[in-house]
Known about the structure:
The chain has helices at 26-36, 53-63, 87-92, 111-121, 138-149, 162-172, 189-196, 241-248, 256-272, 278-290; strands at residues 12-18, 41-47, 67-70, 84-85, 97-101, 104-108, 130-134, 154-159, 180-185, 200-203, 229-232, 252-255. The protein is an alpha/beta fold and 291 residues long. The strands form two sheets. It has a six-stranded mixed β-sheet. The chain has a six-stranded parallel β-sheet with strand order 9-8-7-10-11-12, sandwiched between helices. The protein is globular, with a radius of gyration of 19 Å. It starts with 11 loop residues before the first strand and ends with a helix. NADP nicotinamide-adenine-dinucleotide phosphate binds at residues 72, 111, 135-140, 159-161, 164, 186, 204-207, 209, 233-235, 256, 259-260, 263.
Amino acid sequence: MSSGASPLGPARQLGLLGHPVGHSVSPAMHNAAFRSQQMSAVYGAFDVEPGQLRAAIDGVRALGFLGLNVTIPHKEAVMEFLDEVAPTARQVGAVNTIVNRGGRLMGYNTDGWGFISSLEEHRIRVAGVNAVILGAGGAARAVALHLALAGVRRLTISNRTPQRAEALAQDVQPAAPHVKVDAVEALSPEERVALMDAGLVVNCTPLGMHPNEAASPVQEINLLPQGAVVYDTVYRPLETRLLREARIRGLHTVSGLSMLVHQGACAWEYWFGRRGPTSVMQTAALAALEG
Ligand code: NAP
């Protein structure tokens, strides 16, 4: 990319590494934000085959990119190619944001931070709340750690493969000794009990995601108590079956688009030393999703 004769100076280059990345809304979201702030920066999406990840990172160094986001399937694998990985990203076990500091590539994870920021935007308090996380993959790891650090009372991690829920619970517990962290199997009687007492339920599985929109990770929405908040990290569709059923039930719902916007806005802290403009990013992400 050439900076041309921009009065703003040479364009800083940023981008997303993933596979596939064709449907990502991140370029639209970040480029709209750069324009709104009159910044000379450009964000692209780069489809990188797993076997090419090291070469892609070498290329990023050679081209002097300012920063990157990383998505499926590279979030874990990329860590070994970086010069440094922040402790929280190590705890989560995944990097979604990279900043190039004078040729040194530093890895961070803003998924959990973005999740907590999006709760704050919706004025949802989590301190002292019983939270249930559905799933134990990458998103669940980030959400679980940050909810534990935010002071929930009890954290129940429910997963189809119960061993993964158990492993995540064991990883999270030392970071928050005062939180009771439990692991249960998805759709088990133990999960039922946890849902009946939940103040916050977070779906971190792809169940309900396009094109499988008929699926939901919660079989009986009526189990949830009145006043519970239902958060779906899935954002395609904006209203999943889980969120629709929760809304009809009268529960407070939040779409994963909010987490997507906030993880992106938090990445700006590493790239530019300030938070991204969330309302511009939200509008652009929504337009890209609906476009
Ligand atoms: P991941 O690491 O592959 O983990 C997927 C999780 O979902 C695992 O716990 C897996 O259970 C479970 N799962 C998958 N298919 C299932 C099925 N058919 N039935 C029951 N459980 C199933 O994926 P991830 O990176 O955590 O992403 C999960 C979701 O989070 C994605 O849909 C993505 O849209 C969303 N996400 C959103 C954001 C955002 O910014 N809004 C950010 C990251 C992720 P097993 O352990 O049994 O395989």
